[in-house]
Every structure is written in structure tokens, then in C-alpha cells.
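Posting this for the archive.
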Amino acid sequence: MVREGTGSIFKRKDGKFFIYLPQSVVGDTAFPFTAHSSTKVKVRFTDDGKIVIEPLDE
């Protein structure tokens, strides 16, 4: 099981930001998303400095 890995956040020239997740983490059976191309998510940060990414309920 690979529940942890090193990714990155980067900014494109058009001003958008992306979070890169390593394939080893996303490919783990415990990964909570099934994204084949793109998935809408809700992103928030906590008072203790953590980022929480959750599926967006539409």
C-alpha cells in the first residue's frame, strides 16, 4: 500500500494552479477517488495548516 508520496503544486502561465499526485499514490486501492480524466473536488484548508480535498457532491 502506498498512502504517501511526494507531489507538487505548480502555477501555469495562465494563472491556474495544479496539484500533481504521484501515480503510486493514485493507483493504490485505498485512494478515495476514481478519476479517469478530471473530477470536481472541494478544497479547503484547516486551522492547523492542512489541505483537505473531498469529492464535490453535485
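The first strand starts at residue 8 and ends at 11. Residues 11 and 17 are 4 Å apart (CA to CA).
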